[in-house]
Amino acid sequence: MRYQLKNETVKFTKGRVIGRCVLLVVLIALIPVAYFLPSLFLKGDAADFYSVKIFPVISMLPIAISGMFMTSLTEMFVVVGSLSIFVLFILFLIKCVSLCHNRSLHHMFHFIYLVLRTLAIIAIIGALVFEAMLGINYHRTPVRKSMHLYSEEIRPYSDYEETLRWAYAGMVEARQALGEDYNGVAHVSMSFESMVYEANVAVSSLDHYYNLGLSQNYIRAKAVWLSNFWRYTDIVGMYDPFLGEANINTDYLDVLHLPITMCHEICHAKGYGSETDCNTIAALSCINSERADFRYAGYYYIFMRLWRTVREYAAYEGAEIPNYSALDTIRPVMRDMAAYGQYLDSFEDGLIAEFISYFSEDANNAFLESNGQQGGTQTYEVPQDVYVEYYCRYVRSHD
Q: pTM of the full predicted structure?
C-alpha cells in the first residue's frame, strides 16, 4: 500500500520534467564521450604506458574469472542475453500499457525515464570498460615499428624471392613432420586445451625475445559450442573485452588456420588491439614455435601472402620464380587446402546465409573504423614487406 500511495502522489511539475529530460540527454551524450575520449588522449607513448603497465593489472581479474570456466562465458551471455532482452522488452511494453491504462500517461513516462536512465548508465560503464580492455590498446605503437620491420628503401626483388623460398621451405618441412588421416590430410596433433597452452607459450616467447610489451596473464581461449552456426558470419575468432575472453570457432579444426587464429585472439587479450599487429605477432609466434603444426600454419600464412606479390614483382622485373604448385613437396599442402575448400563449400547458400555474412562484415568493418583502424576489415591483411623485413633483419642476418 505504501508503494502504491507513494506512486500516486508523485508530482510531475514542469521543472522536474525539464530536469529529468536534461539529465537523460546528458547521460546519453556521455555514452560516445566515454567511448571515444580515452582513446583521443591516450595515444603513442601514453597508450604504450597504459598497455604495458596498467592494462595487465586491470585485465587480471576478468581473465582470472573467465579462466575458471571451461566453456565460453561470452557464448552463454550472448544466447541467454538475447532471449532475456526479448522477454524484458515484452515485459517493458506490458508495463507501459498497464501504467497508461490503470494510472496515467505521467506514470508511464516516469517509468520509461527510469528505464532509459538505467540503460544510459549501463552503456556509459560498458563504454569505459571497453576502452580499458581494448579501445586504448588500438593506439599503442605498432609491432612493425617496435620491431623495426620497415625500410626507407624498397627491397629488391631478390629479397622478396628469397623470403618466399624461406617460407616455402619452412612450410613443407613442418608439413612433413605431421601425421595424416586416410585422405592424406593433416590435422592438429593435440587437444584443444594443449593448443591453448602452446599458443600462450608461443606468443609469450616472441614477446620475451623482442620485448613487445604483452601482458603475462595466461589466456584460456574457449571453444564455442555453437560454432556450426557461427561459421556463417565468416568470423573464426573473437576477443570479448568485457570478460577478457578469447573465443575460437571450432567448427573445423583446420591445421592451416587454427593456430594462427588462436594466437591472434590471445594477442588481443594480452594487450594489442590492432588486427594487423595481432596477425603479425600470431604468424611470427607460430613459425618460432617448437610445435610442427604451429610452424606449419605460420609458414603457410606467410607463404600464401607473399606468393602473389612475388609473382607480380617477378613479372615486373622480367624474372622467373619456381612453379611451386608443380613441385611434389607442395602436394600434401594442397591436399590440406582442398580439404579446407570442401569445408567452405559445405556452407548452405541462400538469402539468410548471405545476409548474415554481409551484415557481419559490415558490422565488423564499422567497429574497426570507429576505433581508428583505417581500412576496417582490410587491416587483417599484413603488408607483405613486413615478412620480408623480418626475414632480412632477423633470419638471414643470423644464418
A: 0.90
